[in-house]
Amino acid sequence: MSPHSRTPLPSSLKRPGKPDRMMSAYRLVTRGYTAIITRTAIPAPERVDRDTTLIVTETRLVAENVLSLRLEAADGATLPHWHPGAHLDIVLPSGTVRQYSLCGDPADRSNYRIAVRRIPDGGGSVEIHDRLPVGTRVTAHGPRNAFPFAYPHLARADISGVVFIAAGIGITAILPMVHAAAAAGVDWHLTYLGRGEHTMAFLDEIGRLDPGRVRIHTGPRLPIEDLLAHVGPRTSVYFCGPPALLHDVRTAVDQRDTAGFHFERFAPPPVDGGRAFELHLRRSAYTIRVAPNRSALAAIRDRKPDVAYSCQQGFCGTCRVRVLAGEVERRSRSAFLDEPDTMLLCTDRAESDHLTLEL
Q1: How is domain 152-265 classified at the CATH fold level?
Q2: CATH second-level architecture of 277-357?
């Protein structure tokens, strides 16, 4: 049989000796569809530009040492869409790259809003507070989302409510989720913790929410049982706050029957079960010892403070470098980032005693 000849249709069981009608119809439809698609030009995939030049159009002090910034596209274009929990990688004029949660309205694509707490020894936050006036241009990568809010009515699990816990500047990631839950008619509760109300951002905005669902707490930390008072078997918990509180809340949630625990860290997670290894930096001609309890990124920054990094948690890929020799122990949060012959300095470690990096 030649490659272009057609296979005979099977005989009908009800009409012996004649072709099956269903198979005849199927062949007719298939031939028609094939004729259409072979005559239709398939466009090449269009590249999506995720780097945006933004201009600072407003700065406002929203709490003690917390500056809110409104950012608009420098060319006036509509900004890429984002979902609650998303963040931007901001490239500051100095070249410093830092991540900031989007805390505005996702439906308003004319601008992005971020809020930055000033940290005395934090180069990025000091630059933003002191050297980023209205009119300054910055580059943004993203938006990206490693902390997405899942609407309960769209989730696969049986979820009846959501509990939000935010501490300090963690409100920036949580606030858009609260607005989304309220707009969707979700049963939600928010606990917002801070040292004092003068340190807590966006209290005016939070004050316009349902007061029966919001608890503002200042001073000594609430007992964990009080924080989880509204958590039941069909409740999702979203947390953003300092590592010590995260550890305690996560431990308590793990001992309960819940519909899930979702969180975002301010700082890199501690190294768990690490062992020492050596890094050879080919271009810099450095040999660096990485201690069992330190990340490769932290060790390299002691010698090369300008090394690129952002999230320090293994989900943005900023600190990826090429590995020239040695075996990598991959610890990133996403298998999508596990490219061959590379490593993420913030999380990945060495399977072998030595790694040689193109750095």
Answers
A1: Rossmann fold (3.40.50)
A2: Roll (3.10)
